[in-house]
Amino acid sequence: MTEFELSLVDQTLVRALKHDCTRIGLLGLTPAALTVMAELTHRGLSHRVLGLFDPRCLDDREPAVRGWTLLRELRADMLVVCEDAHKEQLLRAYIALTGDPLPPPQVVVAGMAHIEYRDSVFDDLNRPAKRRHDRLAGPGDCRTRPRFQGYGL
Length: 153
Description:
41% of the residues lie in helices and 12% in strands. The protein has 5 helices and 5 strands. It has helices at residues 3-18, 31-42, 70-74, 87-98, 120-136, and strands at 24-27, 49-53, 65-66, 78-81, 106-108.
């Protein structure tokens, strides 16, 4: 189990029991979602899980995922965001689907990948420069070893 998955499982168990959540929705078809579901099942809490929901799975090709629009009708009292890097997109999709439900559900998130810099235009422009740098930098090249060694500079 990864650190991200462990954090999700721990937070989910604590909040589900502390707030007596009985309608838990898992957001995002990821290995973490399957791990959280397995742990809840192992601990006898599977009856509290509404299912796994992902707005990117709009057809019935993925049997593990329930229909995204069904999430609005089921009125989850807890959402577990099972994706690290794209948690904002999942939460925005949930708000777009449900509006601003009252009372709002408990939300469990983990990880820090969502704050990493991502820009597809930058990646496209930077890719040729990175390949050139990698080709030019040899084993003894100053670009591949630390510039300062200890205090001797």
